[in-house]
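Handout, section 4.2: multi-component inputs.
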Amino acid sequence: MNKDYDVEFGPKRVTCSGERVSVEGYVFRGTILPGQRFTFLSESLVNRTPEGYGPSSRRPIGEIDLTVESIYAYGRFIEELSSGVSGKLELIGTGGGQITPDMVLCGH
Amino acid sequence: MQHAHTLNEPRSHGSRDQRARAKASHGNAGDEAPLIREPLHQHRDGNDITAGAVTDTYEYDAFGNLIASTGTTPNTYLYRGERYDSDLGLYYLRARWFNPVTGRFMTRDPYQGSIYDPASLHRYNYSRANPVNFIDPSGRAAATEYAQLALNVAARVTLVGAEVSAVGCAYFSLGSATDLVGQNIGQQITQLSLLWQGCAAKITARKLYKNAAIGLLGIGAGRLLGAGIGWLLEGAEGGGGTGFPTLFRGTSEGFPGSPALQRLGITPTSTNPAVGTLFATYSGQYGNGVLQIASPAALNGIELTEANVLASAEGEVALSTTPADFAARAETTISAADARAILQDMGYSSPGQIYDLDALRQALAEVPTLTAEEIQQFINAASNLVGAP
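Output:
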């Protein structure tokens, strides 16, 4: 696990149009609020073990600069998304074109 | 996404099936091409239908909000040919009124939806919140789905003959299947007959004989399909209760839910015990990982809320209650290990360790979808474990 970032979001679906990016997925770490900045992109490397899944690791992809404009979950726009909860983030900024569903958006 | 149509040509928006119906309603190659919906007002205005002159055009967003239009012909039949009440700002879709601004119906769907398709369980959604690919002319979401299924069956049958006009018969099979849901069969047979006559009047005599047989096959398929699904639903849901199926929630014992969901008053659950088992296994690192199982009877009085964005992948059903309430109502609670063992006995392997959310995302992507029979088998096995009735 990458312990350097306070907030992480794992997308499962990504839609990118210019500087606008829509990602549907899970909060992996921390709590996401509108205005949250994601500054780094990693690839998630899931570690399979005989028992199931061990600690995952990350492969750095590169810097991004995406800011959360809005959070949508359970049919409404909400003000925060907690760890473990899924939702949709509307992001604006640069680097969105690199995001794929096996990656992790990281920020402080 | 924008959609457009003109008043005197097949609409270009909507799904392939919708386009097929539009084409059928206008005939083929201009031979027998009476217009069914749009030209009503043109009759009043004296426009020449057969000349095909376009007098008005409209562009909508995906939910039917008018973006742009040309022409001045008075017309209340707008998005998808449905009647728009400009005073209310709503579309009349028979069973219910639809608000294109919110993309929601104003009242609940009288039908409870399908347990095998969580998106259909939301009773205010229009066209499963996917108006590009679905329609909802009846105002009853479930009916739309059945109709769509019936259309698919009918279209498959009718297209064997490679007659474009046969698609028109599929269209009427659609309407028939829609009306068949939850209504009197005898009444429907009469309506089917009328609809079929309407269809037949639009095609040539030569085609009629062939397409009558094919179209009736389609209607029959739609009826059988609707009846089959209804039977399946009734069996799986125990014929009553809350209108949704037995639900599964994997968590750690005593977990009050995430702060954000507590504030929203939402408890996520799943129709799939394999999904619940994954969450129970993951939650095991925070306490005693358990799988809670609640039947429709136990959940009586709880409202569904709109499922989350990844609901279809997780078989998620969101309830307007607290995790503590769900835990208290659950008739059966078993350990994550027991849940995995049951799945194992059924031939499904479920990971014994899910260390982090990266892994949970991966595990959810690979989770099997259980059949209704398998879900019942799981419920029975869990009940037997704890000695529940």
